[in-house]
User: Fold this.
Amino acid sequence: MVKALVHDAMRADRPNAKFAGFTDVKDLAEAIVGVWDKPAAEVNGNRLWLTEKP
Assistant:
């Protein structure tokens, strides 16, 4: 689940912000591209962690 997205411009606007729990748009894009390289049975019904696990 993606809680919220963050990108470089947001970080530049608020350099002291931690953006805890936010997913970087670059990480999300890489994860989406990576899904296409895997068999459907391997990814269907699974969660892809893009941030540190709680």
